[in-house]
Design a protein that fits this description.
133 residues, mainly alpha, Erythroid Transcription Factor GATA-1, Chain A, 2 domains, 7 helices
Length: 133
Amino acid sequence: MNDTTTCSKSRIKTLDLCVVCNAQAIGRNFGANTCLSCKVFFRRNALKNKVLSKCRFKNSCEITKETRRFCSSCRLQKCFQQGMRKERIRRYLIEHGNMSEIINNNHLLLSEMSSPMNVSYVNICLRENVKIY
């Protein structure tokens, strides 16, 4: 094997791992390569205004495939550190036609928008099912 082949294979293997827990990644989700478990975890928890259970170990938990369920606070923190962005959740919900979830989370989505103009724009887009980027 030459160096190019070895480099390409190691790069592909790195891209195939979830940046949060190192499990097998399914693709790019909300700004980072993640597994399905971390994708769903982030989508369900990133917009919540309430604080997840506090870490009992001074926010120093190691997040792996085996330990990812032990500390949701450290897991969410690592999601953000690895580049996952809650702004991308809105786009995902709209693109996938998940209107019931959009409506249920409407207060969470709107609370992220600070100016009244942005709130009006989001309401119009939600009503007309327009994609927001």
